[in-house]
Amino acid sequence: MTWQLVFTDQYTKRAARFLKRNPAVRVQYAKALELLRVNPFHPSLRLHRLEGRLSHLYSVSINLQYRITIEMIITDREIIPVNVGDHDTVY
After folding, report:
1. Model-level pTM?
2. d(CA 91, CA 85)
């Protein structure tokens, strides 16, 4: 069973800016989103809960440099991307 990705307007704008600044990562970004939809627990995504002020969010990896922070609503099998960028941007 797949998960539903729910994109907010705010995230869509952030993702567009991220991809404009980092066009070389576009394919990896799309692959990470697809894998997130199919299986957010896949080892290559390195899903983990964040700590501190971001403890309500999780992080998944696009590659070794870039991350997507997400909110996971497990009961409805929904994933809401919150932010995308390098480590300093999303944390």
Report:
1. 0.92
2. 9
